[in-house]
């Protein structure tokens, strides 16, 4: 029932405060905070969106692309080559401030929604997200065919942290859509950005953003903050615990 | 049943971790090795970031080596004096190893150096151990008498100055080779992220001619000290010690180590050395195969610093 209640509420919201000038959107997440506890194995978040159709003369948005980006991190992609029979890292490329998590959910395959140029400009689709690389002393994104870029996307996809779902956005009514955002158990902690873009006849119509937080709570948070803020104490406590466990096992199994 | 690891930041099955701890603990108790050279790669395989794996394994090794050391201490098999002399070299070696680690990482060839060091060290030591213990077993099978150690038959490096008597080990040798061995273990340990027990045990047996069981017991004591220092070092410098991961591993590890210690004493020394030699050789081969076979993906992605 809760799943139905949310879009209904949104509909009311849209009707109450309608601004007909441009196609506006009202977005809502089933929860804005993913909490990590000791039995956390991943979570799913449902995004609801209502698009105001605006004046009748304007084309109604036909497509939606939802992009979720996790906190940025810097990565290095290494290329191996055979050297004297052994595979050696010979070349590397730094990816600066790349999202640690990247989900692209669309109402259909992005390449069917708009032209490659538009998609690239709008950073819509996994291949169209800007990934800044350091090349020599320059900072730039490269062509999508760049082997390092492709390898980076391939590795992140294999880790389950990058993915694209062409049927990830579902229209439940002409102007109401729903998208399910899976957060895997290995998802990095931090602030996530949800960007929703609507398209009509291949041109972007409107855009909306939301933020989402993945955070450790309770015991997990206590351990993580202790390790950060009191490293000496944490180290000593861990070392003592280790010796304690060793001693107890020794006493428990003592036979002579 | 899964459990979320707060520092490694991923969920894992708690029973997989326990089983891993018990299996590696058994081996570490049996042969007096820390088990890091087995545990660290297995954790990385489970998805734990390498920096967290190396740091957390040290808690497991501290616990299981403490448990093992206590057992051997009670049986009066630990040569504390030998251990202390080894430690003086070991701690200096650790420092040198940490510096080398930093220099190599700056030049981007750390992984390769680690792999090649593994292959060379494990290959050499494994082959030597297997060959020697097979010879010993063959002699026994033929009913020949084993060579009795004669006091005058020491190689040149044991006859160097600064001689010291190690009663427990029944040796009277120069401290120079002892400190050198300690230094080498410390250096390799810091560089390769291992306790070094599997290198130290054969070094004590073959180079210093310490009895097998005393070698194992003394190596365990050394592992205990270096690993406790490693916990503190990793916790303070990198904040990569996952206490939850460490706790699950050490509970399994200490239980496994108890059975391993008994199994080790039930086996004749030659067979124990043969088994350890085969194990070391197998791990070395595994690393070699990994380096030689064409990897599934020629590209790899690593997270920059950030110490995650």
UniProtKB/TrEMBL annotation, chain A:
<protein>
    <submittedName>
        <fullName>Uncharacterized protein (TIGR02186 family)</fullName>
    </submittedName>
</protein>
<keyword id="KW-0732">Signal</keyword>
<dbReference type="Pfam" id="PF09608">
    <property type="entry name" value="Alph_Pro_TM"/>
</dbReference>
<keyword id="KW-0472">Membrane</keyword>
<feature type="transmembrane region" description="Helical">
    <location>
        <begin position="232"/>
        <end position="253"/>
    </location>
</feature>
<keyword id="KW-0812">Transmembrane</keyword>
<feature type="signal peptide">
    <location>
        <begin position="1"/>
        <end position="22"/>
    </location>
</feature>
<dbReference type="InterPro" id="IPR019088">
    <property type="entry name" value="CHP02186-rel_TM"/>
</dbReference>
<keyword id="KW-1133">Transmembrane helix</keyword>
From TrEMBL, chain B:
<comment type="similarity">
    <text>Belongs to the 4-toluene sulfonate uptake permease (TSUP) (TC 2.A.102) family.</text>
</comment>
<dbReference type="GO" id="GO:0005886">
    <property type="term" value="C:plasma membrane"/>
</dbReference>
<keyword id="KW-0812">Transmembrane</keyword>
<feature type="transmembrane region" description="Helical">
    <location>
        <begin position="243"/>
        <end position="260"/>
    </location>
</feature>
<dbReference type="InterPro" id="IPR002781">
    <property type="entry name" value="TM_pro_TauE-like"/>
</dbReference>
<feature type="transmembrane region" description="Helical">
    <location>
        <begin position="43"/>
        <end position="63"/>
    </location>
</feature>
<feature type="transmembrane region" description="Helical">
    <location>
        <begin position="215"/>
        <end position="237"/>
    </location>
</feature>
<feature type="transmembrane region" description="Helical">
    <location>
        <begin position="12"/>
        <end position="37"/>
    </location>
</feature>
<dbReference type="InterPro" id="IPR051598">
    <property type="entry name" value="TSUP/Inactive_protease-like"/>
</dbReference>
<feature type="transmembrane region" description="Helical">
    <location>
        <begin position="169"/>
        <end position="185"/>
    </location>
</feature>
<dbReference type="Pfam" id="PF01925">
    <property type="entry name" value="TauE"/>
</dbReference>
<keyword id="KW-0472">Membrane</keyword>
<protein>
    <recommendedName>
        <fullName>Probable membrane transporter protein</fullName>
    </recommendedName>
</protein>
<keyword id="KW-1003">Cell membrane</keyword>
<feature type="transmembrane region" description="Helical">
    <location>
        <begin position="272"/>
        <end position="289"/>
    </location>
</feature>
<keyword id="KW-1133">Transmembrane helix</keyword>
<feature type="transmembrane region" description="Helical">
    <location>
        <begin position="84"/>
        <end position="104"/>
    </location>
</feature>
<feature type="transmembrane region" description="Helical">
    <location>
        <begin position="110"/>
        <end position="131"/>
    </location>
</feature>
